[in-house]
Amino acid sequence: MTRDFMPNIGFDARTRIATAYGYASQRVATSNLAGRILTDLITETPIDLTHLPMAQHHLWWKPVPLRLVGTRYTQWALGRLNAH
Fold it and tell me: Which is deepest, 2, 9, 16, 68, by most CB within 10 Å?
């Protein structure tokens, strides 16, 4: 699931890699739409589907290194408590 709950469907023409992810609960309908959008992006056919907000939309999770360190330390500490 993405941070803004918007599916990410994109195609990188340089690497020729197509991606479609982040539509955890929409299932078949969004899979079908993602396939049609990717087809149009790969074949460079500019139609209405390629102008949808989810086409070429990439929003990554913000890095939270301090929170990750705290979480890992807590997991490690709880693991040690369980071992004793």
Answer: 9
